[in-house]
Amino acid sequence: MGRVVIDVMPKPEILDPQGKAVVGALPRLGFDVFTGVRQGKRFELEVEGDVTPEVLEQAREAAETLLSNPVIEDVVSVREADRVDA
Amino acid sequence: MKVGVVTFPGSLDDGDARRAVTLAGGEAVALWHADADLKGVDAVVLPGGFSYGDYLRCGAIARFAPVMTEVVRAAEGGMPVLGICNGFQVLCESHLLPGALVRNDHQKFICRDQRLRVEATDTAWTSSFTAGQEITIPLKNGEGGFVADTATLDRLEGEGRVVFRYLDVNPNGSMRDIAGISNDRGNVVGLMPHPEHAVEELFGPGLDGLGLFTSVLKAGLEAVS
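Structure tokens for the assembled complex are given below, as produced in the milestone run.
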């Protein structure tokens, strides 16, 4: 079974209220070195067989059309899951 | 004149929207998300709520519902379409309107009676108002911040497509205080506040919402005559 990992992040110029809330909470727990947080999304898409170039191409298309909204988000990575991801 | 109101899984204000159509003098027709069928309606309302639980992004999954293929086709042919709150989000995700709605800048859900200025009266949904008219209707959203790039915002302003603007306070961080916009033809309008909750005495802040529904009925009559 193959797996494709897709990362989507809010565009840099779009305010990320969730990230802002997280960066506000960190110092309360003593994590005082972090000056900014941006929160994105990670999708894991499973396929029956191997992750072929065609599978990756479909994943890229899905990432651009459904999994992200290009007005507010960037698809930053579409890749086959490696051992680190597993 | 028949005005269809779409019900998606998670729609909340479809009943109120149908009631508003009826009170304005139209015939409300319930449309179902899974049916690729507009049942011969003359206009469509996409109501507020949390279609598909707001999963993925607000409106992102509703956009691919079978009924939306027909709504998009009809809208591109000039049929009046109104998106309220979640419906506005669906219209943006469907690319019938530019921009997107993101989480409120203050991160809290907001529910208040909101004063607005009607800035464009040449749309299918606002012809009953006078230019610059100030109205008060309820606003309730968690992800109502309107965003778009500067070029898009300038184009919307330049072409007179900012239909409603927030007055007094900007309740959700919307760019340039934008509460509602239209497409270039003026048949498709989306707004975050809820006109369908201000159509009856003793319910809501007044009757200011009724004008959107009487506008589209008027447009329908003019098209027939």
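The CA atoms of residues 5 and 44 of chain A lie 5 Å apart. Chain A has a mean pLDDT of 92. Further analysis is deferred to the final report.
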